[in-house]
Amino acid sequence: MKRTGAQIFVESLKAEGIDTIFCYPGGATLNITDALTDISQINQVVVRHEQAAVHAADGYARASGRVGVALVTSGPGATNTVTGIATAYMDSIPLVVFSCQVNTMLIGNDAFQEADIVGITRPCTKHSYLVRDVKDLARIIKEAFHIAASGRPGPVLVDIPKDVSSAVGDFKYPEKAVIRSYQPTYVGHTGQIKKAMRLIMHSKRPVLYTGGGVILSNASQELTRFAEALSIPVTNTLMGLGGIPGNHPLFLGMLGMHGTYAANMAITESDLIIAMGARFDDRATGKTDEFAPHARIIHIDIDPTSISKNIKVDIPIVGDTRNVLTQMLKIVEEEKEVYRQYHRSIADWTDKIGKWKKDYPLTYQRNDTLKPQHVIERVFELTKGKAIITTEVGQNQMWAAQFFKFLKPRTCLTSGGLGTMGYGFPAAIGAQVAFPKSLVVDIAGDGSIQMNIQELATAVQYNLPVKVIILNNGFLGMVRQWQELFYEKRYTWTRLHSPDFVKVAEAYGAVGLRIEKEADVDRVLKQAFKNGRPTFIDVHVSPEECVYPMVPAGASLKEMLLV
Amino acid sequence: MRHTISLLVENEFGVLSRIAGLFSGRGFNIESLCVAESLDPTVSTMTIVTTGNDAILEQILKQLNKLINVIKVVDFKEIDYVSREMVLVKVNAEEKTRPEILRMVEIFRGKIIDVSSRSYTIMITGDEDKLKAFISLIKPLGIKELVRTGPIAMARGERMMKIKEKTETKGGESNG
Ligand SMILES: Cc1ncc(C[n+]2csc(CCOP(=O)(O)OP(=O)(O)O)c2C)c(N)n1
Ligand SMILES: [Mg+2]
After folding, report:
1. How far apart are CA A447 and CA A558, in angstroms?
2. Looking at CA atoms only, how far is residue B169 from chain A in angstroms?
3. pLDDT tens digit string along A418-441?
4. Of A445, A547, B31, B153, which is most buried, counting CB atoms within 10 Å of its CB?
5. Is the pLDDT confidence value at A96 over 50?
6. Which helix (H) or strand (E) holds A139?
7. Across residues A265-293, what is the average pLDDT?
8. What is the C-alpha to C-alpha distance for residues A231 and A353, in angstroms, rounded to an integer?
9. Residue B140 forms contact with A (CB below 8 Å)
10. d(CA A257, CA A274)
11. A67: which DSSP letter?
12. How many Å lie between the alpha carbon of A87 and the closest alpha carbon of chain B?
């Protein structure tokens, strides 16, 4: 049957099982926009800025594990997506971003609202397509979804010229994407896995260091079982939080620049690091020369380019973390006798770690001011950890990572790799669309929230009851912290003047609440969590609080500044 | 270190810029690059010569492998290979220098492919050393213009760039 490109687009999304798109219209989208009229199968969430469309699709993807979809117009619509795409790329989030493009004949002519978005996003997409002929459209859409979700996931951009969406062609959605040059390795090499298990058996001070790959491959149960079977302590990267329950006795907390004492010391004194779905990012490793100086390293990752990139690895295993963990668990099962004794042989180590945890817990100085850390602790207690948390970037993000004990995977949505201020609020909107009944909370800063505050209108329009907790310290706090510690307190550029966030929320038709003293925290949070409406909570926290522990830039992990 | 890299890639638009981007994004210069259709018209063969830090180059090779449109990558570092390049040289050719030029062209098994009243255009193929030697000998006679193709390379013996092999190389590579 003959269909227009726009209809092919809609039918392809349906065939792909897409239930939600985050979008913003323009001249170049009109054919597609029109074809989506009354298509109730696809929930169409119109945002207020294209960056937010991509972050929302990203939040939807992280929370649900499905591919997020955004659709925008040509030129400025497309260029507005760049930060969102780069954010998803750095954190390996599966997205398909459809940008519309000027007519094929005009491409390259500086036509009105033309931007070479394929070129602009080339370094921050997993792959991209410019559709030149309507007959390729369905196949390209199929491939785009396949590439975004498989292997190491990532954003894929599909640029659709307006004459392609109006052209008429045959529609048949391919059953399978066949790409001869793309076949990710899922199953780990058995020989390597055996070698790794032997190394583990002979280690005395092992640590599991796990990242976003464990979340992306839905391997948290396997990880927890594996850690328990051998009593190996686990530390997570920021992206890996929720990979093992945050209150698990084997959990050391996050490692790295703002990691816990126990995690950073465990890495430093370890004789074997088992890295899974983590990429030895500099925020996690500190000075690489002094990272885990006594340890051999096993590295399991689906992406060969992550292996031995920053740190030389002894046993590389390319494969899906969940698959590899399952293979490792099988060996543990088959050789029960051997492995049952293992925890005894590392008892000295686990004791030592237990002592670090006890002697140096995450903490902060309490006084008569309202502490941001306390607010996060209360959010955790009041929700019993049953919430999807998104964060902005800065101190707010680090306190959320430290003081909210993420109990489940896909509940910590944060821009780890790119560190994008303005991510949290639209991501919360995306997560809320995916899970309308869940409590979704954005832990925000007074600086970051201004970067996508316009999405209040989206939240109100679609009645998405997200809660935004603004840790209002009157500063671009994280930058101020560096100025305090390393630039003799010259707070150049970092003092913030903010609007009255309560009134802003109300002006948009949302609820605005304020907390100014510790005594009000529980009452106001409870009120917010049950009001069923989009809500801003403006929390006036102590302005010059710092995030500790802190490993100064360029220092090794053991050189932590403590509270 | 100097590396000669061969690639099989999808014969499509956009592939070259992705590949070039991996080098330029890291401040690596591509010394030469040859691309043309292979026996299978849907596939192109590419030969890239570059110089740089081995660790960074290893990263580039992995990244090349990771590109969706790249089918196979071979770095001729540990593989015995042959490589040839072609150069076209336009030289001053006056009455008294012509015999000398002709003799040299003959020694280097080249060809004169264009003649004018005051110049010869010479074609020479060979490996890098041979071309260098020829160019330095002909230089004193007055080179007006010179164009080189950059080398193309192929493994010696039975080794071949086969499409099927690539899945193993892509994923299994780091499996040790
Ligand atoms: C888009 C963007 N611009 C700049 C930065 C640099 N930056 C990192 S943290 C930070 C301060 C954030 O301030 P705020 O949102 O108030 O959070 P706080 O640290 O005070 O909790 C800045 C400016 C960034 N991460 N992202
Ligand atoms: Mg702030």
Report:
1. 31
2. 10
3. 999 999 999 999 999 999 999 999
4. A445
5. yes
6. helix A137-149
7. 96
8. 12
9. no
10. 20
11. P
12. 18
Cα distance between residue B103 and residue B109, in whole Å: 10
- The rounded percent of chain A whose pLDDT value lies above 90 is 99
**3-state class (DSSP) for residue A478:** helix
Residue A343, chain B, CB below 8 Å: the answer is no
Provide, as residue numbers in chain B, all residues whose Cβ is less than 8 Å from the Cβ of A122.
17-18, 21
| CA proximity to A12, closest of A153, A131, A182 | A131
A310 interfaces chain B, CB cutoff of 8 Å: no
Token pair for residue A552? 């100064």
Q: What is d(CA A312, CA A546) in angstroms, rounded to the nearest whole number? A: 34
**Residue A473 Cβ < 6 Å to ligand 1:** yes
Nearest residue to B1 via CA among B28, B25, B26: B28
Tokens representing residue A327 in the block: 């293979």
**Which 24-83 residues of chain B touch chain A by CB within 8 A?**
25, 58-59, 62-63, 65-66, 68-71
Candidate from B59, B163, B172 with C-beta closest to A185: B172
For residues A536 and A527, give the distance between their C-alpha atoms in angstroms, rounded to a whole number: 12
ipTM of the shown complex: 0.86
Instruction: Please tell me the distance from the alpha carbon of residue A240 to that of residue A254, in angstroms, as a whole number.
Output: 9
Question: A304 CB near a chain B CB, below 8 Å?
Answer: yes
pTM of this prediction? Answer: 0.95
Using CB atoms within 10 Å of the CB of residue A19, give its burial: 0 to 12 exposed, 13 to 18 middle, 19+ buried: middle
Per the structure block, which two tokens stand in for A364?
């902060």
Whole-angstrom distance, CA of residue A134 vs CA of residue A132: 7
**Which ligand 1 atom is the nearest neighbour of the CA of A471?**
21
End-to-end CA gap in chain A:
69
* pLDDT > 70 in chain A, percent: 100
Which helix H or strand E contains A523, and what residues bound it? Answer: helix A521-530
Cβ-based neighbours of A113, under 8 Å, separated by 6 or more: A26, A27, A28, A73, A74, A75, A76, A77, A102
Where are any strands of DSSP class E within A309-429? Answer: 315-318, 388-391, 412-413
How far away, in angstroms, is A392 Cα from ligand 2 center?
A: 10
Closest to A165 (Cα-Cα) out of A100, A210, A214, A82: A100
DSSP state at residue B78: S
Q: Is A561 helix (H, G, I), strand (E, B) or coil?
A: strand
Instruction: From the CA of A392, give the closest atom in ligand 1.
Output: 15
Beta-sheet pairing, A95-101 with A296-301: unpaired
> How far, in Å, CA of A73 to CA of A115, rounded?
10
